[in-house]
Amino acid sequence: MSPKDSLTTSISPSERGVVVSLVGSASMDLCDQLHKTLEDACQSRPPLLIIDLTGLEFICSLGLGAIVVAYLRVQKNGGRVALVGPSEAIQNVLTATKLGNLMTIYPTIEDAHTGR
Asked: What angle do CA 20, 12, 89 make, to 5 degrees?
């Protein structure tokens, strides 16, 4: 399996919530992993869920759906979701789907923490 055919996810506590880092490709056959990771990150009801997209090369519609489900869960609990560092290709997808209007996109994790 090449890096393009794999997805590495991690969850880390942060100063104001939780950071989920995504590296690789969120293709259809790997979206269950993405959904499970985001679900796990939402369990603690973080006030801030940061989804770090800096290492993400591709995301399919099911992956976008998993992000929307996480957004709805966090928002329901009074929190917010921030997206960080999407590549130009991922940014284009977020813009085309209007998800960039739903969630704030920041260049760095530090910016997401401060809300700038």
From this structure: 25
Of the CA atoms within 13 Å of residue 43, those in its CB half-sphere come to 9
Using a 10 angstrom Cβ sphere, with 0-12 exposed, 13-18 middle and 19 or more buried, the burial of residue 74 is buried
Compute and round to an integer the Cα radius of gyration of the chain: 13
**pLDDT tens profile 25-62:** 999 989 899 999 999 999 999 999 999 999 999 999 99
Q: Are 79 and 45 in contact (CB under 8 A)?
A: yes
Encoding tokens for residue 59?
């995301």
Which architecture does CATH list for 3-114?
A: 2-Layer Sandwich (3.30)
Burial (0-12, 13-18, 19+ Cβ within 10 Å), 83: buried
Kind of pairing, strands 7-13 and 80-84? unpaired
